[in-house]
Amino acid sequence: MNKKIVIIGASGHGKVIADIARLNGYEEILFLDDDTSKRSCGRYPIVGTSKDIRQYKDDHDFIIAIGNNRIREKISDMLERENIKQTALIHPSAVIDETAMIKEGTVIMANAVVNAEVQIGRSCIINTASSIDHECVLEDYVHVSPGVHVAGTVTIGKSTWIGIGATVINNLSICANCMIGAGSTVIKDIKEEGTYVGSPIRKVR
Ligand SMILES: CC(C)(COP(=O)(O)OP(=O)(O)OC[C@H]1O[C@@H](n2cnc3c(N)ncnc32)[C@H](O)[C@@H]1OP(=O)(O)O)[C@@H](O)C(=O)NCCC(=O)NCCS
Known about the structure:
The protein has 205 residues and is of the alpha/beta class.
């Protein structure tokens, strides 16, 4: 039987996820997007909006391609209410230790490395060429941007976004709902939600 997948969110991020789906053997790749002015995403068709999920639920896998952590959570909850379990998608070039645990809806992009005993929650994004070292715990809806390095035994709270090229040293904890700016260096626990930038980081919001 053909492998079929519905990708929710027809953005540039969606195009990257579509290619990972293709490399994972999906032969039918369809998009849903609430912007009804769009017709296609890359070379794949947009066949409806998020209201149309039911008609695909019996014979398609599902994944959400939306970078915004809160919107991804909202749509993920909507899928759960419809008893739709998302798939996880892993680029074939990613290196994933066999003891790592990765929950549904998470996407791991090209050249990412996920090391021993890492736990990654649902609907996370482990973006291009990032690395998550041994025994880290990433809660649900975390986004680790391209080129981020997270050292061993770090905990990242729900919906936190680590900006492109940031570095997080080992044995610390970042709470939920934080934004870590591009290129920043986290060297201490972050206990209060907000936006942090710089090397070492300072709180700006
Ligand atoms: C952190 C970030 C979200 C802040 O955006 P913002 O809320 O619009 O904040 P501002 O641009 O008003 O900047 C606030 C202050 O932080 C500084 N700042 C912002 N981002 C910074 C960064 N990455 N590193 C160092 N300083 C930074 C600004 O210079 C400014 O400093 P000032 O008050 O002394 O002038 C944004 O700059 C950023 O880094 N985004 C990351 C995007 C990313 O990773 N994309 C990848 C997509 S996959």
